[in-house]
Amino acid sequence: MRGVLLYIDPGTGSMLFTILIGIAATGMFFVQKLILKIKFRLSGGKVSAGSENRIPYVIFSDSKRYWNTFKPICDEFERRGIEAAYWTASPDDPALEEKYGHVKCEFIGEGNRAFARLNMMSADVCLSTTPGLDVLQWKRSRNVKYYVHILHETGGTLLYRMFGMDYYDAILLTGDFQIQEIRDLEASRGDPAKELKVVGCPYMDEMKKRLESAEPLTNETKTILLAPSWGKSAILTLYGEKIIEALLKTGYHIVIRPHPQSMTSEKELLDRLMKAYPDSSDLEWNFDPDNFEILRRSDLMITDFSGVIFDFTLVFGKPIIYAEYEFDPAPYDAAWVDRTLWRDEILPKLGVPLKEEQFGQLKELIDDLSDNEEFAAGREQARNEAWMNIGRSAALTVDYLVDKKKELDEKDAPEPAVAEA
Length: 421
Fold this sequence. Notes:
This protein is α/β, with parallel strands linked by helices. It is built from 15 helices and 13 strands. It is globular, with a radius of gyration of 24 Å.
């Protein structure tokens, strides 16, 4: 035998990487601690362990698509003249083009390279939308005092993949109803209670400002936006050509905007559909990084369980048609609690459901819904429940982070020396 081909499956590879990172981190911390002890003695006790090179605030984003959540927060740090760091795992994150004086934006690598940096960082407070802290590759660093998760949509907290937020110290919410969701989840697992604070939704605040300052639009032809989520229960996966054919038969202008994850996880499906239905005067595919313009110029949205439902209805005040689907809660935190999802309770107050047997009457459904004011009260209810502190979310978020750092500093402050008699 000339050689042996060594194969390591992805799960084992991830585990081995985690072990190696743990060993490297342990070694680094040992060296850091040794150096600090030496400095402590040489300085007469004036150097506190972990105080050197500690960043006061780190904001971590695993994807550039969350910049719309973090930009208002970074802008607020900058406005107040507070030093902070924004770390991104996207080399083309728009944050890297910002000319901040107090917020340092940095690309820290993709995938495991980014997690290696996070696992060894030194910070007072870390803010992120990324789920799975201390579950997979991203481990809590012993040199980070406090981890804060911020929601990046208003639809609730129970549709995270299992254990997505369990190991954060605090969660910043968009509405009061989410507090009970978290408390029920904690009780079902016997987890300690996390600190919860309702701050609102920064990106929706900014979207509202943009809409108020934008020129009004009038479409010559009604524009219908198909905005699916991704996965086996999503519209394009379930219905594909059937829903597109039904939409084209309405005679309206159709825009299909796939979920960003579809471009990775469902590329074969998208390639097939885009080849069968290329861009034309009747249909367009939209992949703009910023969804503001396409939401603004669409008259009605057809979707499934995508969080963009609430952007469209709550900010733009427009009607929706949502596809009925079989939801399997097994992979999600929803499997741990015996309660109806807020999303499922509110959807019938925002629009109408769509069954496959109704595809032939899609034009009639759209026409009936377009001028129907019945759902205005439902939109107002959803705003009041899920999008609180409108216009103040970024300021409240920074207030919380600053107050938390002050609290941590006071807790860690050394006891004043007692003068000897």
